[in-house]
Every structure is written in C-alpha cells, then in structure tokens.
Amino acid sequence: MTNKEKFNNLISREKANSVSINRDRIKNRARLRESQDIALKVLSKLDELNWSQRKLASELKVSPQQVSKIIKGKENLTLETVVKLQQVLDIPILASFYENKIQAFSFDEFLKSDISQQIENISSGISFYKKEFIKGFNVEPKMVSVKEYRYQMAS
C-alpha cells in the first residue's frame, strides 16, 4: 500500500460540518459567557454557604443532574431557574435584582435612620448610600469613567 492510499484511508469520506459547528459556537458565545458567569457566582455562593450541589438541588427542588449542568456553565437556563437561584442563594443574576435592591436604599430610609449616625457618617466622609450599598451587595462600589465619543453620520 502506498503512502497516498494510506493517507486516503485515514481521512473521512463524509463532509465535515466544522463550519456550521463554528458558526453555532460563535452565535452562542454570549449566552455561554453569561452561563459561565452564573456558574461562577453559584459556585462561589455554595462555597460561602458550605453547601453541596445535592443540598442546592434539594433547595431548588430540582435533580442533582440539573445542578451539575448549571455548575458546568453550559446550560441555557430558563427564567424560572434563574429566579429560583436568586431567591435561594440571594445572588444577583438578573438586572431586576439590582433594581429591587437599589429601591431599598430610598431617601425615606435615609430620613428614618438615626440622625446622629448620619452626622457622624457625614463628618467622617462616609456616604449613607455607599455604606448601604456595601451592606446590601457585599462589595465596594466602583467608579467608572465613560469616554465621550462623537460619531459623524456618513452622507
């Protein structure tokens, strides 16, 4: 048998669908990234709570296999599953989670709080909202600068 015949025996006679597989992968890239981010949040919270995947499955009322899929970060999560995760683990996943938390820091709450504490915070340079943000989200708020871009329409 010649080298050419050996080579031809090695390669597949079927058409490769690599192009379509790559198109699908690129199309789903953003969804996969989000799914992986959610998986990392869930894993971090499970570590923090000292929970097993089995415990999370029982709290969510789903199978351990479903939790395993979520943890792998390749599952296309339903809205129902995302809401359950937020409620059970108290972690932000949807934008509405932040909106609901931010509404809790209303001006009315500020007025109801102890005025001497407010004055102490003001004199020490600590913002009431910053303090409440840290308490609510367990993270320090970040300052973000946005560059201004000027676009010109083509004529």
What's the arrangement of secondary structure elements?
Layout: H1 3-10, H2 18-27, H3 29-49, H4 53-60, H5 64-72, H6 79-89, H7 95-103, H8 107-112, H9 115-124, H10 128-137
Helix pairs in contact: 4-5
Spell out the key features of this protein:
single chain, 155 residues, mainly alpha, 434 Repressor (Amino-terminal Domain), 2 domains, 10 helices, 0% strand
Give the helix tally: 10
List low-confidence stretches: none
Helix content, binned percent: 55-70%
N-to-C order of helices and strands: HHHHHHHHHH
- Output the CATH homologous superfamily of the largest domain: lambda repressor-like DNA-binding domains
Please tell me about this protein's structure.
This protein is mainly α. The chain has two domains: 71 residues, lambda repressor-like DNA-binding domains (434 Repressor (Amino-terminal Domain)); 38 residues, no CATH class. The protein is 66% helix and 0% strand. The model has no long low-confidence stretch (mean pLDDT 77).
